[in-house]
Amino acid sequence: MKKPEPKKVRHVKKQDRQKVRHCAEFASSLPTDLIEDDNDIVQFGGKSVAAAIGEILTGLGCDVELPSYAGDHGWDFCGKIRDAKFFCQVTFIEDYIFLFKRRDEFPSWFQRHPPALYITLDALAVAMARDERFSNLRWVYEPLAGEKGVVDPLIDLRSSRSSD
Amino acid sequence: MNPGLRFAEARRGDSISKLIGSSDPRAVGKFLSLNGMDGSSSTLREGRSYVVPDDWHDASDAEAVAGQELLHVDNARLGALAAKSADDATANRQLQFLRQGRNIRTGEFPTPATTPAGVANRPERSWLDNSAAAKVAAGTLAQAAGVIPGVARGAVHALEGAVDGGMFLGRLALNLPGDTAWQDVGRVGGATIDYTKRAINDPALVGRDLRTVAGKAWADQVPTATPVADTIGDELKRRFNLGLNNGELLFDGASLAVGGEALRGAAELGAAAKGADAAETAYLAARPALKAYMDQPYKGRMGHHIVPRGKELPPELGGGPYPKAIMESPFNKIRETNMTNRDFYRNHVGVDKDYWGGSAPRKAGRGWSGKALGWADYGPIDRLRYGTAPPTKAIIGSGLVGGTTNALSNSGNVQ
After folding, report:
1. What is the DSSP string of B44-61?
2. What is the ipTM of this complex?
3. Which residues of A touch B360 (CB under 8 A)?
4. In this complex, do A72 and B301 lie within 8 Å of one another by their Cβ atoms?
5. pLDDT tens digits for B279-297?
6. pTM above 0.80, yes or no
7. Which residues in chain A are closer than 8 Å to B314, comparing Cβ atoms?
8. pLDDT tens, B219-251?
9. What is the C-alpha radius of gyration for chain B, rounded to an integer number of angstroms?
10. How many Cβ atoms are within 10 Å of B345's Cβ, its own excluded?
11. Non-local CB neighbours of A1 within 8 Å, separated by 6+ positions
């Protein structure tokens, strides 16, 4: 008897999305690009790191914009792969904080979270871990909150599926 | 023998590189040390005499580093100015397109929402396209979602109107030779007299015209005045556009009631944040340099946006990011008016799920974390109180803003 084909996943459900770590904390050997004068910050850092992550995503087949300055947030850029649009943000404090998430339309209530978004995040995590410009990479649910972090942002999702 | 130095008097528009004739960091660094400048600023005083190096091969490494840092700071400032100028031109063009109901990027008018009858190869229909109940339910939500961007659009139109009106009045007052402002007044007056004459001859004219105007306004605001779209996607677009119109009408009505003076006054509100608790006080007491930085005025940076920077326009309005004129308007942005770094950052951490901490200058300890300072997310009341642009708060009322900002924040996306 022919085995039935697995059902095609059209979007990732909310309970699954909540098991994905969308943020990373890491150090980098790239220039910080932070500029300050005697009293205050003139330009927040993270431009070179944002550009490097953008290059990695381009190498993974994404269409990626150049990083733009986001003030206190650091540097951000948007990208797209197939039907998935994403938004990335790099903030430099003492280490770097990286955010990868779906880019919303407004209103966004009917938008879906395509699997391509999570496949891209998975591939990006592997590429960043192998990249010598980044070190001490750990994915967390919430940055600067004292989380220990993990190397695989989808590990909780994978383990919940394997236990089903 | 040439000592490799000369004196030069700074004139208006001069810079260090211009006096030296080079942008070499070693030259700039040597200029700084020869003139006793500490490298924090490149400002030259007009009329003052400066020692200018003609030869800088003997500049020390420290001088080269100081020169490089100053060039970095200056280049960043010049880059920011150039980018702002280019952004402003694009924003003005996009704003014109938006006002005309066009796609903000291509300038094209949107295609009709419904597919003409008899078109071959119609796309496959979903069951939702045939469900009247689904269209009503989804359309109602889409229309509600259009209200806030509509308020922002109304605000932009009102500001434009104020600027245009002010300029026109100024032209009337100046009455410069060749200016047509007074002729424009004459033309409008003539047209009014002409219309009055026609109305006297044909009393039904005014009634017909009023019905036309009222019918257009009704169709722009009320869902039942125009037919339901063929597909659920088109119905969502139709209802979202109605929401935009509702929001603009809401702005117009409320600003008429509130008045310009109240709006300007409201812009001065909100220069505060939730107070410090014991954890924050203890944390900053142990870090006096960071505390001094937090007590400084917040200046010259981006502010906080209610509709986040990462959000996109609906596809029928061109997709892509919202026009800068809406994103950066005082109705969508909390600026740095009279706020300290501490108050601004406290509010930013409180309302923005994508902001957890930030950099500080090296002398203040390099960085800070909201979590370490004990700063939790704001609840709905504090979001309304501290996390909403004051003019928006003044116009659209606490219930609407509270609900909307909370909904946005629950989507994990307030910036």
Report:
1. --TT-EEEEES--TT--H
2. 0.87
3. 41
4. yes
5. 899 999 999 999 999 998 8
6. no
7. 105-106
8. 777 777 777 888 877 888 888 888 878 777 776
9. 29
10. 24
11. none
